[in-house]
Amino acid sequence: MDRVGIFEAKARLSELVDKAERGIETTITRNGKVVARLAPPAKAHRMRPNAAVIDRITAFSKTLNVRGRVDIRKLIEDGRE
After folding, report:
1. CA quadruple 62, 65, 68, 69: dihedral positive or negative?
2. pTM of structure
3. What distance in Å separates the CA atoms of residue 53 and residue 41, rounded to the nearest whole number?
4. pLDDT tens-place values along the chain, 81 residues long
C-alpha cells in the first residue's frame, strides 16, 4: 500500500488510478493524517454487476408455460398493427 500527500496525489492522480485498477491501494494524507483511500473496486461487483437482475429474469422465465416454438418476428409484426 502506497502512502502519498494530498498535493502529490493531485499531481499523480492518473498514475494512482492505474495502480488501483491493478489492485494496489493508496492512502492519501493531509498534514501527516490519513484522510482518504484510493482502492480498487470490490471484485464481486466487477465480475457480475448484473447478477441480481439475471437471477430475477431466470426465476421469472421458469414461471412461464410456453409450449411449442414461439415466432418472435410474428409477435413483433402483430404488435405493430
Report:
1. negative
2. 0.51
3. 20
4. 789 999 999 999 999 999 998 889 999 999 999 999 999 887 655 556 677 888 888 888 888 887 778 888 888 888 887
Q: Which of 24, 29, 25, 23 lies closest to 9 in space, CA to CA?
A: 29
Give the burial string for 11-39 (b: 16+ CB within 10 Å, else e): eeeeebeebbeeeeebebeeeeeeeeebe
Domains of the chain: 1-81 (3.40.1620.10)
| C-alpha span between 36 and 4 (Å, rounded) | 10
426465476: which residue's cell? 59
